[in-house]
Amino acid sequence: MTKILYLMRHGQTLFNILHKNQGICDSPLTQQGIADAKRVHEYLQQNNIIFDHAYTSTQERASDTLELVTDQPYQRLKGLKEWNFGLLEGESQRLNPPFDSKLGSVGNGYVQYGGDSADAVQKRMVKTLTNIMIQKGHQRVLVVGHGASIYLFLKNWIPLDELLNHIELRNCAILKFSFDDETKKFTYLETINVN
Length: 195
Description:
Layout lengths: L2 E7 L4 H5 L12 H16 L6 E5 L2 H10 L5 E3 L40 H16 L6 E6 L1 H11 L2 H7 L7 E7 L4 E8 L3
Parallel strand pairs: 1-4, 2-3, 2-4
Antiparallel strand pairs: 1-5, 5-6
């Protein structure tokens, strides 16, 4: 039987507005981020979308978003955390390593600053989300996470050209996937933007 994953990016934060890196560091949701998450809550109610399980990263901006979207119990998982940007945490995004269009990321660019490689984050996200979805009774699951780590997860399942040119990952965007228990593969279905 096909399972469905709703993978959502957290609401807008103060560091999003200031264009600062927030990987393992955190900043609070803005009033816009709170309002957008409440709109997602309304959308889910209006479309009778009910989850049997919900998960979030251990970071406050993600768990705060999830609590605005649904009042059901949830589990926090370290495997869903954002990319660690090392010494560039909290710094201007202008200081980031250059994006490599062939790789579709900065590759090992943050490693020199004590951060994670893109491959390490991608493997962690694929493993964590697969481990969530293979569990019994996990037919329709909500996961709230972070922009860069979700992007790297997407990169594992979607051709790079399509990802770069056709998928927009706004704050509070929901990426809908099907998951096949036998092959353990995710298939991207659509992006839901309510803001």
